[in-house]
């Protein structure tokens, strides 16, 4: 009887990486039709997501990742409740379940119900032993553990229904950027990717920037002009117009460059097409403030040396996590290895 091994999984995952670099006609058609199912999933953004996974699944990274993985020969059934805010956002959870030799019982998000099955179909072609490890379900039952991704509201529902089994239940998180005023035009331009990729809908997208007192905001706005075409997407434009009208009607002070609204606010979670900003006096004081907010922060984009227990990445890299960059700083592999 064939046994699923780490070597077989590494080969299959790496083949998938090569495939994503040159997808066939069938999968290309799935990409092209993605906007018909979800208007946020433009072809460009779907390809951006696929490129990120293609980059992630390189052979040295896979070999390093699997050093921490035990491939179980007694698979557990792991229910996965997936989000759909950006293309293929649940793919890493699925990979983690499969990598540990377990069975993924997948409840797809209605917002992302086409791409994942097409991608997993291709993965099964590379490793047929995975066919019995991937199950789709409208309603989860007969599971040994749960990984659920949702909002602060749905997390209470998840806690109620799934609290008696081993679980990872994720809530809302946002990412922030910390500027020290010494950033180059190029670095601020790269920060635009952290803000605008996937229209800013991901938890790794920057929704707020911290700037030193006296910071000239024009130094921030000018390098972002290269992203102005985002306003041509009708759903993004609707959000921009709506939030702008609210600020104008209520005489809320804000800055506007024609496609992004910048508002001073102590909150972390800004509305779509809005970026919050806040001034700080010194980095040591800011570091302590962010420490108290870590449970709400996914990652920090900066080139300063902050001492926090969340991912810190350079400009333009928030949406390029490694295999071992786990959501909410909870090691999914450790959780699955212990089942």
From TrEMBL:
It comes from the Bacteria. The keyword NADP applies. GO terms for biological process: bioluminescence. Keywords: NADP. InterPro entries: Ald_DH/histidinol_DH, CoA_reduct_LuxC. Pfam families: LuxC (PF05893). The keyword NADP applies. GO terms for molecular function: acyl-CoA dehydrogenase activity. This is Acyl-CoA reductase. It comes from Pedobacter cryoconitis.
């Amino acid at each position: 009887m064939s046994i699923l091994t780490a070597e077989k999984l590494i080969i299959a995952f790496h083949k998938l990486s090569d495939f994503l670099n040159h997808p066939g006609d069938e999968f290309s058609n799935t990409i092209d039709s993605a906007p018909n199912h979800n208007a946020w999933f433009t072809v460009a953004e779907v390809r951006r997501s696929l490129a990120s996974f293609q980059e992630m699944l390189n052979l040295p990274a896979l070999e390093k990742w699997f050093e921490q993985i035990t491939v179980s020969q007694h698979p557990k059934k792991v229910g996965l409740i997936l989000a759909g805010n950006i293309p293929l956002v649940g793919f890493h959870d699925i990979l983690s379940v499969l990598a540990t030799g377990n069975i993924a019982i997948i409840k797809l998000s209605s917002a992302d119900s086409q791409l994942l099955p097409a991608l997993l179909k291709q993965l099964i072609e590379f490793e047929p032993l995975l066919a019995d490890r991937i199950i789709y379900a409208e309603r989860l039952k007969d599971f040994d553990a749960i990984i659920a991704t949702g909002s602060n509201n749905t997390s209470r529902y998840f806690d109620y229904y799934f609290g008696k089994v081993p679980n990872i239940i994720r809530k809302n998180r946002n990412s922030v950027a910390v500027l020290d005023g010494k950033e180059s035009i190029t670095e601020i331009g790269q920060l635009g990717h952290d803000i605008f990729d996937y229209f800013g809908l991901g938890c790794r997208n920057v929704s707020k920037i911290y700037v030193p007192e006296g910071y000239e905001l024009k130094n921030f706005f000018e390098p972002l002009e290269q992203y102005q075409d985002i306003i041509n997407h009708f759903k993004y434009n609707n959000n921009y117009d709506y939030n702008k009208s609210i600020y104008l009607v209520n005489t809320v002070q804000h800055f506007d460059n024609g496609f992004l609204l910048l508002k001073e606010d102590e909150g972390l979670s800004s509305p779509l097409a809005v970026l919050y900003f806040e001034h700080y006096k010194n980095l040591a004081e800011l570091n302590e403030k962010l420490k108290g907010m870590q449970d709400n922060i996914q990652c920090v984009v900066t080139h300063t040396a902050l001492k926090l227990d969340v991912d810190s990445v350079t400009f333009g890299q928030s949406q390029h996590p490694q295999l071992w960059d786990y959501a909410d700083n909870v090691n999914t592999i450790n959780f699955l290895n212990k089942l």
